[in-house]
Design a protein that fits this description.
The chain is mainly α. It contains 9 helices and no strands. The radius of gyration is 25 Å and the shape is elongated.
């Protein structure tokens, strides 16, 4: 039977191993648990232990049981990354589907004499903001703020490019103002995500 110090050391070792196996930093784990990274560091050094409820949250996060965290194992098997793989697959499939639909629409319009026109290629331009809208949905569901910021920025500039081309085709060539508006929205997007990230870190501290 192990003593208290040995138990803390064992739990600390398991917490460290499973965190690294799941490719998380101490700060990443702290954000997910609403703790400070200092608390995570203390757990992994064996200076203190998380309570039972927190151990349960950690176990659920890694797809393991509490026993995996508090008992010694001969070998720690890397948890299946099926969920992350599914998220990536669904995201890729959905975004590719946008371009498939755009291509299908373009071909259909070109094959129908009544709708065949030189500007049918605009469906691909419209697909740009649509692509980023779909990406933003999944970024908000499963991914971090960086990808969310990139995807929302993509929506902004996708809309700007679409509007600019439409205005140009309608012989409204003096449309540089639209880029200024796009730049303003881009700044607002960046400031918004900086504020969200700051509030998240402040909450953890």
């Amino acid at each position: 039977m192990i003593n208290e110090e040995q138990f803390k050391t064992l739990v600390a070792k398991n917490l460290t191993n499973y965190r690294k196996i799941n490719n998380l930093t101490q700060l990443d784990l702290a954000e997910k648990l609403s703790y400070s990274d200092k608390a995570i560091s203390k757990w992994e050094r064996g200076e203190s232990l998380p309570d039972l409820y927190t151990l349960e949250k950690i176990a659920n996060l890694y797809g393991i049981t509490i026993n995996d965290l508090v008992y010694e194992k001969q070998e720690i098997i890397k948890p299946k990354k099926l969920k992350k793989t599914n998220h990536l697959f669904i995201t890729l499939l959905s975004t590719i589907l946008v371009w498939f639909i755009a291509t299908l629409t373009f071909v259909t319009l070109m094959l129908i004499p009544a709708t065949s026109s030189y500007d049918n290629w605009l469906v691909f331009i419209i697909a740009i903001p649509t692509f980023f809208i779909v990406l933003t949905v999944f970024a908000c569901l499963w991914y971090k703020n960086v990808l969310r910021c990139i995807s929302v920025s993509g929506i902004v500039w996708g809309v700007v490019i679409t509007l600019q081309i439409i205005l140009y085709l309608n012989h409204l060539k003096n449309n540089s103002l639209i880029y200024i508006i796009g730049a303003v929205f881009q700044i607002l997007v960046i400031l918004w995500f900086i504020m969200v990230d700051y509030q998240k870190k402040s909450k953890i501290k």
